[in-house]
Amino acid sequence: MVSTDIGYQVGGVSTSLYRWNVPALLPPMSSARHETRSRWCIVVADAAGPEWPVSEDINVQSAPVQYCGLGEPTTMLQKALHRAIRISHPARVMVTAAEVHRSHWQRALWFMRAEHRFVSESPGWSLLATAAAVLSIAARAPSALITILPARCYVSDEWTLTVALHRALSAPSFLADGIVTLGIVDAELGVDEDYLVLSAPDDRPTVAVAFTAQKPMEWVARDFVRRGALVATGIYIAYASALAALLYRYWPTLTHNILRNLKQSYVRGLENRIAPVLAQEALRAASRPFWDRPPWLTLRALRVAHCGWSSLSSTQAIEGIVTAQPEAAQYGLYQSQYDYLKRERTS
């Protein structure tokens, strides 16, 4: 049973956030009642992925693709931040980032309080920074809604995705079973995408995810899609208490250490630092591949119409986006509209 201070009994060990006095160290809330009903977003900007030139200058250095514009003036990180403030107040947006890439993300976060930045000192440990952000929100408001948005993605039709996000956030019944993820219905196979393979449908608007197929071969992906599989987005929506409970259930000791790190390092006006010792603790709890692609999430998927989604998980996927953009822009079309017309011409 979940108590009002989001303390959980796991194996007889109390895991209350209030036991470590985390709320006392966090910025004060103007209205606790309003806060508990609020929407929060965590933009994941430190996920590993391919690098790409940050501009068309052949002499410029490459950077993780989320810090690139792919031919446009707005980077993928900036677009993710815009996405976040469409569904949450700007004061309730948090970002995970890696210290090594500070020069690429710092200017984009000018509007964000430093306390809402979770900066990892060990590149490649995005999940730890995300867990720290989740726990900090859960300490403030256990019943708040959290949306986790990846910065490493491309969307040509933002309207379709935004409508789906609002739909998921506005219907409490969608979240009754825990964590909801968005899955894209795609007529064409994406390049190097993961796929959500669904269980048999029931009478609910979301469908249970049987498993996630990670970058299957093309013929396998085509068969999955034919049977109704969805493109995985890495977008997750859940109550703060549900996400905190998940962390406590699997790693009570690591969760304790994350909270202790927040408590010891918190200073108003300064960023939250994810110390290297937490990565070492994570490796003691589970092997590295387990953290890179956690297999332990129980999900239900909400279907989203085609919106020109790409997870930008490979250079081939990025090249496909960059190559198609100029011709689509020439006709003043969304990428999804251009793809549709191209299919019509060739059919």
Using only C-alpha atoms, the radius of gyration works out to 20 Å
Strand order of the largest sheet: 9-12-10-11-14
SSE string, helices as H and strands as E: EEHEEEHEHEHEHEEEHEHHEHHEHH
Category from helices, strands and their pairing? alpha/beta
Average predicted local confidence, pLDDT:
81
State the distance separating the first and last CA atoms. 56 Å
Low-confidence stretches are 1-36, 328-338
The geometry reads as globular
Count of strand segments: 14
Layout of strands and helices, then pairs:
Blueprint: E1 9-10, E2 13-14, H1 32-36, E3 39-44, E4 51-53, E5 62-64, H2 76-87, E6 93-98, H3 102-105, E7 117-120, H4 126-140, E8 145-150, H5 158-170, E9 179-184, E10 195-198, E11 207-213, H6 218-226, E12 230-239, H7 240-250, H8 252-265, E13 272-274, H9 276-285, H10 288-292, E14 299-304, H11 315-330, H12 335-346
Parallel strand pairs: 3-6, 3-8, 6-7, 7-13, 9-14
Antiparallel strand pairs: 1-2, 4-5, 8-12, 9-12, 10-11, 10-12, 11-14
Helix pairs in contact: 4-7, 4-8, 7-8, 8-9, 11-12
Describe this protein's structure:
This protein is α/β, with parallel strands linked by helices and 347 residues long. The protein is 36% helix and 20% strand. It is built from twelve helices and 14 strands. The chain has helices at residues 32-36, 76-87, 102-105, 126-140, 158-170, 218-226, 240-250, 252-265, 276-285, 288-292, 315-330, 335-346, and strands at 9-10, 13-14, 39-44, 51-53, 62-64, 93-98, 117-120, 145-150, 179-184, 195-198, 207-213, 230-239, 272-274, 299-304. The chain has a five-stranded mixed beta barrel with strand order 9-12-10-11-14. Strands 1-2 form a two-stranded antiparallel sheet. Strands 4-5 form a two-stranded antiparallel sheet. α4 (126-140) packs across α7 and α8 packs antiparallel against α9 (276-285). The protein is globular. It starts with 8 loop residues before the first strand and ends with a helix. The model is unreliable at 1-36 and 328-338 (pLDDT under 50).
